Automatic annotation (TrEMBL):
<keyword id="KW-0808">Transferase</keyword>
<dbReference type="InterPro" id="IPR007657">
    <property type="entry name" value="Glycosyltransferase_61"/>
</dbReference>
<protein>
    <submittedName>
        <fullName>Protein O-linked-mannose beta-1,4-N-acetylglucosaminyltransferase 2-like</fullName>
    </submittedName>
</protein>
<dbReference type="InterPro" id="IPR049625">
    <property type="entry name" value="Glyco_transf_61_cat"/>
</dbReference>
<keyword id="KW-0328">Glycosyltransferase</keyword>
<feature type="domain" description="Glycosyltransferase 61 catalytic">
    <location>
        <begin position="215"/>
        <end position="320"/>
    </location>
</feature>
<dbReference type="GO" id="GO:0016763">
    <property type="term" value="F:pentosyltransferase activity"/>
</dbReference>
<dbReference type="GO" id="GO:0000139">
    <property type="term" value="C:Golgi membrane"/>
</dbReference>
<dbReference type="Pfam" id="PF04577">
    <property type="entry name" value="Glyco_transf_61"/>
</dbReference>
<keyword id="KW-0325">Glycoprotein</keyword>
């Protein structure tokens, strides 16, 4: 059988249209449910539609048919991406149509497993959004729809080859079956049922009270370890006795904003305090296996608020994580990384910069409302223009005297972690 393989992840080969999935061992089947189409549109972040019954995907017209006897025709539409409130982004997401159809559709590729259908458009490609809008909601959805670990097939709309290659290990941990990319297909695909959309509990979070088996963000972190660590011995175990505490300094360069302008001085200060400092400047090409190995073996992580701090998901519970918060980014720092850090059991702290540490002071003046009271300046309007000021125009020059005390406390906790964990 011909296969298309990208970085170890198999993609469905449309030339082999009669491919069948191996029938996996499964628990006794549940009581039969009515064969119908249902859509839950009650949530702010997402819509979720299900087809309970034999489903035919026609990729050419982005339509899924419930191929079962019916007395009336039901038609639903969904854009399967969990940023429902953000209209401009949602307008660019491929829409799928769900139709109940008593006429049997020609089945060209028969699958024995249900499908989960979602989109890799929108903000996909930004590391934060890949997890916030993709992999965390996918984890929530899989464990909500299939709490008994049922096997399934991923159908991912507009998944690019580079994206599948980058996240191959993680995608393969969700499902070992070939990924179906509708835009690459002309053949119809048949499933016993289908779920469209991803369930999101909010920004970078999993609410155990909403999960059938009470999973939390710590379970997602364990899932990442399964994908990227594969049960191997941790690299720090082979280090000489009493190694120095390793601090990952996550950095940004160029014209992207939130650059630490005195990064060398910060690095030297951390080394003077006792850390072994590793400069980590991730790029879209950074292999995640490599990034995971580095961060998973570290004892502390420090960085300015930004998408790169999403790598904090790779830290072991109990490790020190310090977020440097620029002016105007206080709320974003909380919802994007502070909440998730606490939920994962990290030793979380914040270093909120003062006006004299922000490059915005030089441009707008220390008495500007933009500096003195960002919340009032912003109001309810977090527009792209305001976002650009705080996130793209602003760089940081850390006060080394004030920062020293924060690093000393971080070092103390990192050493305590090392002694407790044996490395």
């Amino acid at each position: 059988m011909a296969k298309v393989v990208l970085a170890g992840i198999e993609v469905f080969n449309r030339n082999n249209v009669f491919q069948k999935d191996p029938t996996p061992p499964s628990p006794p089947p549940p009581l039969p449910r009515p064969q119908q189409i249902n859509c839950d549109r009650s949530h702010r972040f997402y819509d979720l539609c299900t087809i309970n019954g034999p489903t035919v995907l026609d990729p050419v017209n982005s339509t899924l048919y419930l191929s079962a006897p019916t007395n009336s025709t039901t038609v639903e539409k969904i854009r399967p991406y969990p940023r429902k409130w953000e209209k401009p982004i949602m307008a660019g997401i491929q829409e799928f149509t769900l139709v109940s159809n008593s006429k049997s559709q020609l089945c060209q590729a028969q699958h024995n497993l249900p499908a989960i259908v979602f989109s890799a458009e929108g903000y996909t490609g930004n590391f934060f959004h890949d997890f916030n809008d993709g992999f965390i909601p996918l984890f929530v959805t899989v464990n909500s729809v299939f709490p008994d670990n049922q096997d399934f097939i991923l159908v991912i709309s507009h998944a690019q080859n580079w994206w599948i290659s980058k996240y191959g290990d993680l995608l393969h941990t969700y499902s070992k079956h070939p990924i179906i990319i509708p835009e690459n297909e002309t053949s119809t695909h048949c499933f016993p049922s289908a779920t469209l959309g991803l369930i999101s509990h909010g920004f970078m979070t999993i609410d155990p009270k909403l999960m059938p088996n009470s999973q939390a963000l710590t379970h997602f972190r364990a899932f990442l370890d399964k994908a990227y660590n594969h049960g191997q011995n941790h690299p720090w175990k082979s280090n000489p006795p009493k190694p120095r505490a390793r601090l990952v300094l996550a950095t940004r360069n160029g014209g992207v904003g939130r650059v630490i302008s005195n990064q060398n001085e910060v690095q030297h200060l951390a080394e003077e305090i006792g850390f072994d400092v590793i400069i980590f400047e991730p790029t879209p090409q950074t292999p995640l296996q490599q990034a995971y190995a580095l961060i998973n073996s570290s004892h502390a992580m420090v960085g300015v608020h930004g998408a790169g701090l999403t790598h904090s998901l790779f830290l072991r519970p109990g490790v020190v994580f310090m977020q440097v918060v620029p002016i105007g980014a206080e709320w974003l720092a909380e919802v994007c990384f502070a909440n998730s850090a606490r939920a994962m059991g990290l030793e979380y702290s914040e270093y909120r910069i003062g006006a004299e540490e922000s490059s915005l002071t030089d441009k707008y003046g220390k008495n500007s409302l933009l500096i003195k009271d960002p919340a009032t300046f912003r109001g309810q309007n977090w527009s792209s223009a305001i976002m650009d000021i705080y996130l793209k125009e602003q760089n940081v020059k850390i006060d080394l005297i004030r920062f020293r005390d924060y690093l000393k406390e971080a070092y103390k906790k990192a050493k305590e972690f090392m002694e407790k964990e044996g490395g």
